[in-house]
Recover the amino acids of this structure.
């Protein structure tokens, strides 16, 4: 989006390191204080989510923010499990997410590789579209896509209909492309001289070295469908097809509260389960997921 | 494509043979086309065609039909657009988004830059802080909205902490506070992403400028304002434009956190109206026109913001 920084090679360098200038005395405690206050503000809701998911009866008093043995139970998890068919919802979320991941990895890596290392007519305009597309808000596409996919093609309550609009994550394609551009040409030379086809070169040479880019792509792509609410909400009418985000939202807004003894606890329990996979994936990949990649994905 | 076949049989130039095999292969047509075909088809099916279709719908009287059924759509010119502009809820939703952006965008820019600047040093627990800031960004809105409604609900923890200072009626059912709470929520959820963007941008600010400022005896605040802030101006443009786009497309938060844009439409957003009118009440033509209006406004706003943030001194 900013022309000034476009096309700047973004090598997979280590996480941003501080410039080596001397620190003014007294500044370090100030920095740490600011960061600590912010970290508490960012993390407290997560902590509170877990505390709430373990309460027998919702306790919103200040004392209730600290778990108390007499008010602690695992019942909220089993209640919400029976109320929203947790297993089935997780399965739906899983199929939706894995479908998107597979399409993005297969077709996205091919497109990213071609955009970086192959010459073909229309390459530069495709690269421009790739960047423009990331600025198109999905919400604008929701209505025509709903008309087409649900009404015209009859793909409501269908995994295909759920996956289609997210199938290839453009930001991931861009991250792949940026990575492949930086691989020295010599790495591909020998394989090509030996007569390997481009698909072999991609599979044997490019993909093995692109692991950090692929991990970033997986994380970026994963959080899209796993966290998405609006689209699967529109596509599903059948409760058995709802991904977890939709089941939880419907439970919250329709107040099927009468079904369980402690609705707040149940909602918190489902929220914890919905949050865990993305959070764990992020913490595991964090090392690879440097600011450089986000930078590359956004700057265009 | 014809040039590709012409250059292919050329013999390697003396002294620089390695480039030729690569170039010959790269100039072969088709291979690249095969590789990008799935992605191009995807872009056409999911972006290009729906965008054009949306525009077409917005100029017709359009009805939902069952798969396979065809109901003729009558050309109605700008009638849908007139309906959109005459609708009081639509107007309210644009005012709300205005309130939202006035709070969200400056807050995002200032907090993200301050946190990024604070992180930009050799510090203990740096990785922990980065992860903590990023956590809400990777987590589903639906899950986070659930905790926020527990925190900000009537008699929630926030009310308990504030005691007599808590607004009455409580935050999410208070027509003055509903929109600001949504703006705070989105700022909180997205901030980590923008902190990382600024952190990357800070790596490009020359250390010499800081040295010069230090020689001139500038204090921390002065250095921040005269070196850091101008140094990351391109990133500020990106952050502002992204925050505007994200904010204008608010849906999940008013749908869930304030129970469908309540109280009494105090927190309706344009996308929520698109959903309510277009899909719930089956007026897709109205929603399509509203979508076009929203995008035109967002693009205009982004261009203004870009001009504003890129302006040199």
């Amino acid at each position: 989006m900013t022309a000034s920084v476009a096309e700047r090679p973004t090598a997979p360098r280590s996480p941003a390191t501080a410039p080596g200038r001397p620190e003014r005395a007294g500044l370090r405690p100030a920095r740490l204080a600011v960061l600590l206050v912010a970290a508490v503000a960012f993390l407290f809701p997560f902590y509170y989510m877990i505390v709430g998911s373990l309460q027998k009866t919702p306790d919103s008093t200040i004392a209730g923010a600290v778990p108390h043995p007499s008010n602690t139970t695992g019942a909220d998890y089993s209640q919400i499990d029976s109320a929203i068919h947790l297993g089935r919802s997780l399965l739906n979320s899983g199929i939706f997410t894995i479908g998107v991941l597979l399409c993005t990895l297969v077709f996205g890596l091919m497109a990213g590789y071609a955009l970086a290392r192959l010459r073909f007519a229309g390459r530069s305009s495709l690269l421009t579209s790739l960047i423009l597309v990331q600025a198109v808000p999905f919400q604008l596409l929701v209505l025509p896509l709903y008309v087409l996919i649900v009404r015209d093609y009859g793909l409501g309550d269908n995994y295909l209909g759920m996956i289609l609009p997210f199938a290839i994550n453009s930001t991931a394609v861009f991250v792949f492309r940026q990575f492949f551009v930086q691989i020295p040409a010599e790495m591909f030379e020998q394989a090509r001289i030996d007569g390997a086809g481009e698909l072999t070169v991609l599979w044997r040479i490019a993909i093995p070295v692109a692991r950090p880019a692929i991990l970033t792509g997986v994380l970026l792509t994963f959080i899209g469908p796993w966290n998405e609410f609006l689209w699967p909400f529109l596509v599903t009418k059948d409760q058995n097809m709802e991904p977890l985000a939709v089941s939880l939202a419907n439970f919250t807004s329709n107040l099927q509260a009468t079904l369980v003894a402690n609705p707040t606890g149940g909602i918190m329990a489902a929220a914890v389960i919905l949050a865990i996979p993305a959070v764990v994936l992020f913490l595991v990949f964090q090392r690879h997921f440097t600011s450089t990649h986000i930078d590359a994905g956004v700057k265009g | 494509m014809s040039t590709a076949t012409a250059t292919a049989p050329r013999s390697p130039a003396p002294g620089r043979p390695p480039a030729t095999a690569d170039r010959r292969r790269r100039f072969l047509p088709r291979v690249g086309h095969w590789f990008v075909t799935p992605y191009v088809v995807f872009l056409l099916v999911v972006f290009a065609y729906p965008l054009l279709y949306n525009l077409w719908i917005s100029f017709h009287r359009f009805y939902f039909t069952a798969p396979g059924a065809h109901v003729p759509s009558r050309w109605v010119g700008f009638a849908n657009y007139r309906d959109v502009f005459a609708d009081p809820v639509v107007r309210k939703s644009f005012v709300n988004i205005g309130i939202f952006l006035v709070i969200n965008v400056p807050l995002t820019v200032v907090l993200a830059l301050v946190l990024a600047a604070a992180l930009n040093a050799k510090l203990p627990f740096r990785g922990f802080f980065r992860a903590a800031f990023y956590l809400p960004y990777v987590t589903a809105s639906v899950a986070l909205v659930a905790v926020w409604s527990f925190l900000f609900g009537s008699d929630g923890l926030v009310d308990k902490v504030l005691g007599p200072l808590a607004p009455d009626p409580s935050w999410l059912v208070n027509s003055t506070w509903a929109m600001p709470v949504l703006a705070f929520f989105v700022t909180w959820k997205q901030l980590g992403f923008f902190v990382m963007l600024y952190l990357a941008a800070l790596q490009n600010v020359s250390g010499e400028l800081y040295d010069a400022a230090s020689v001139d005896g500038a204090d921390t605040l002065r250095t921040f304002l005269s070196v850091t802030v101008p140094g990351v101006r391109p990133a500020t443009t990106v952050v502002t434009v992204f925050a505007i786009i994200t904010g204008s497309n608010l849906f999940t938060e008013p749908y869930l956190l304030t129970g469908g844009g309540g109280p009494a439409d105090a927190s309706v957003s344009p996308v929520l109206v698109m959903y309510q009118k277009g899909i719930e009440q089956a007026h897709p033509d109205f929603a399509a026109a509203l979508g076009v209006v929203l995008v035109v406004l967002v693009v205009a706003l982004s261009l203004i913001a870009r001009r504003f943030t890129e302006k040199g001194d």
